[in-house]
Structure formats: C-alpha cells, structure tokens
Amino acid sequence: MIAIEVEHLVKRFGAFAAVEDVSFDVPAGQVAAVLGPNGAGKTTTIEVLEGFLAPSTGAVRVLGADPRQGGRAGRARKARTGLVLQTTSLDMQLTVAEAVSLYAGLFPRPMAPAELIEMIDLAGDAGTRIGALSGGQRRRVDLGLGIIGRPEVLFLDEPTTGLDPEARRELWAVIQSLVAAGTTVLLTTHYIEEAQRLADRVIVLAEGRVVADAAPDQLRARGGTPVIRYRLPPGVSAGDLPADLARRVDPQRRELSLPSADLTADLEALVAWARRSRADLTGLEVSPPSLEDAYLSLTSESPCLN
User: Fold this and answer.
1) Do residues 85 and 28 touch, judged by C-beta distance below 8 A?
2) What pTM does this model have?
3) How do residues 232-289 score in pLDDT, each as one tens digit?
4) How far is CA 50 from the centre of its chain?
5) Statement to judge: residues 168 and 256 lie in one domain
C-alpha cells in the first residue's frame, strides 16, 4: 500500500515556484526523510501534504485521498494522520497531563494519556505546566500531541531543530518505536545524522526539484570518491609528508583526509613514504563518502543550482 503520493507537484507563490514538478511516493511503514538547503521546498511540500496549502498544479494523496478533502470522510482521514510542525502555540498554562488529555478527546481511538506521557518520558513532569518545561521537554510534548491519535501517517517538520544531542536522541527513540509499530513517517530535517539514523529513503530537494531519491547507503555511493584518513603519529608533522599529501592534513586534528580518485596510486604513495620515513601506518582508514558528502555534492552540483 502507498501511504503518501506526490505527482508532479508545483506550488507557486505569485511568480515564484517554491516547488517545481516534484514526484515521489512513500509505501506504508516506511520512513522517508526530505533533505535540502533553506528554500529548497521542504516545508512547502509537507504543508501541501498536510492540507494547509493547495497545489498550484499536480496532485497529492495521503492514505489514498486528497488531504484537503472535507466532510465526514475528510475528518476520518485526518484522524489517521499526525502532525508535528516546526513551531506550535500551546497554552503554556496547561500541564502536560491536561494538554495530552485535551488532545486525546479529539480522536476516535486515542492512546491512553498516561501511556502516551510515559512514552515521551515525561511521567515525572505530568503535573508541570508546559511553560515551565525545557525546550527539549516541550518538543517531546509536541511529538506526543502529534501521535496521541495513533496515526497511520506522521508528518514531522524539523522535529529536533534547536535540541541538544541528548534530547535529539530521546526523540529519535520515540520515533523509532512508532515506526516499529507500523507508522509511516515523512520528515524534513537539516540534520544528516538524523536522516541516516531514521530514514529508509532520503529525498533530496534543491530549488524546488528532486535531485536524488534513494536509500542512504545508495546515496553515499553517489557522493564521490573514497577517502583515505590517517592520523599522524607523535613526532610526525604535515611537513614530513610529500607536498601533495601535506596539503590535505588538518593541522588541528593532525589528520590526513584525502579524497582519492585513484585509490591504488594514492595508497602506494603513502606506503612508500611510510617505508622511507619508518612511519607507523596504524589507524589508516579507507572509507566511502559519508551521507553528508553525498548531500553536499548533490546540492552544490545539481543543475538546479548552476
């Protein structure tokens, strides 16, 4: 079953096309991450899918229907989806338990409020007013309110922006538990690590167009050349290396990082230097490009950006 369908979506604001001929679909149970620089069309795309914006041309469907559908059928479909927006306007005077109970009343088969509060790790703060919570705790409340209705499809727009690493990982754990239970997730994010950790697929947008759509590992393979990494041992400086290698040493980390178009030749040169200098090559690594390398390559070299 296809949970989310986007067909030749165009969204214009006056003469400006924020989204230009975007197509993709997300099967049920999959996590798809939408990446792209600011202005790439990520939030516009997700707002069309959430029903807040109408397409200029093209079509979108969520759970088989137009997200702007009204009437009883539209309300029933909306009850099967969850939204976590970039910013929310919760009543800061409500306690966590009050907010969760209030939202639970909006859905036909909500999670038990106590179960939900435990899931987002706020059981100890159930009686705390939202205004007194930390930023990370408030973001957990946002997520909790987005999933209280047991959504089949969950939209997450920059769900962990502004959180510290620990709070980010806590939210990841909640999202992963939802996915394990079968929820389909579409998220936008600026964090490459987040996409790597959560997503089955990564859709890269640049200036409103899809420039890549593949599994994270497949994107990494498209990111360019492999990289040779070697941390200089004590007593060895960058100046001791051949000039073409010395230029690739990070002086702060004392690490050689060499993207290699000819891996055999570059390794032979490094080994030959080590033999001449009696240098220890322990710790030498050869790795494929990172997902970040691939992302930067796609967004900087896309024809959309030239």
Assistant:
1) no
2) 0.80
3) 998 899 999 988 889 999 988 899 988 888 999 999 999 999 999 999 999 999 987 7
4) 18
5) no
